[in-house]
DNA sequence: TCATTAATTTGGC
DNA sequence: GCCAAATTAATGA
């Protein structure tokens, strides 16, 4: 995990649980807490002017949620919604900043985490700018797989629905389905029982 | 459990 | 790429 749970607790951290589709915070809210996922999966999404959902990121065990908002004075640019049953530790923003002042290693870890996310975001944006649907999907696949320990081929089960894949890549659901089938034919991935293995 | 809703898939344009 | 329709899975009363 990013920061030790006990340490977060010492700085006023408390645990909150959320069920699937529960809202953790909404776009436009003023950040008051640092959030770190103990268990579960959370999506960061934005609904565009056409009412289509764009998933910016999917976070899970051990990761922090929009921690960068602790450092600047802005409102949240995305909604944070629980996808699965979630246990999340929340630390008041000022306490969290104090924690980073007091604990150099934690500050370094957070810096490292932010740098990695930013780097990944560059890669993902470049892939998603491609006009080829298979490039966009492959980019997401590679990204998600990089988060898992399991690196052998066809053994990673993509924890996303077709619809979510479409919401991340900005493609249509139908396009995702057809592209994924083509990719299976090209042996880039496998499909078993509707699940995508990569 | 049954009914309703959401997701997936196919086919036509 | 868009829309409609059919099928299947998930959700909730």
What is the structure about, briefly put?
Helix content is 39%, strand content 25%. It has helices spanning 5-10, 93-102, 104-128, 133-147, 162-169, 173-185, and strands at residues 14-18, 23-25, 33-39, 41-47, 53-60, 64-65, 79-82, 86-92, 190-192, 195-197.
How would you describe the overall organization of this protein?
The chain is of the alpha+beta class and 198 residues long. Helix content is 39%, strand content 25%. The chain is built from 6 helices and 10 strands, in the order H-E-E-E-E-E-E-E-E-H-H-H-H-H-E-E. The strands form 3 sheets. A 4-stranded antiparallel β-sheet has the order 1-8-3-6. It has a 4-stranded antiparallel β-sheet with strand order 2-7-4-5. A two-stranded antiparallel ribbon has the order 9-10. The model has no long low-confidence stretch (mean pLDDT 94). It binds a DNA duplex (13 and 13 nucleotides) through residues 161-163, 172-175, 177-178, 194.
């Amino acid at each position: 995990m990013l920061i030790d749970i006990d340490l977060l607790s010492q700085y006023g951290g408390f645990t909150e649980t959320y069920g699937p589709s529960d809202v953790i915070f909404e776009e436009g809210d003023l950040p008051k807490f640092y959030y770190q996922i103990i268990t579960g999966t959370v999506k960061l999404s934005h609904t565009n002017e056409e009412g289509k959902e764009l998933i910016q990121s999917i976070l899970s065990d051990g990761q922090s949620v929009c921690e960068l908002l602790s450092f600047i004075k802005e409102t949240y640019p995305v909604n944070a919604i629980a996808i699965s049953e979630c246990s999340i530790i929340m630390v008041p923003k000022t306490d969290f900043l104090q924690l980073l002042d007091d604990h150099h290693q934690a500050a370094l870890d957070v810096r490292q985490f932010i740098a990695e996310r930013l780097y990944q975001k560059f890669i993902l944006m470049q892939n998603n700018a491609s006009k080829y649907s298979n490039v966009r999907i492959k980019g997401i696949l590679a990204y998600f797989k990089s988060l898992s320990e399991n690196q052998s081929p066809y053994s990673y089960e993509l924890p996303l629905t077709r619809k979510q894949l479409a919401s991340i890549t900005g493609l249509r659901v139908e396009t995702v389905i057809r592209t994924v089938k083509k990719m299976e034919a090209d042996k880039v991935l496998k499909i078993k029982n509707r699940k995508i293995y990569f």
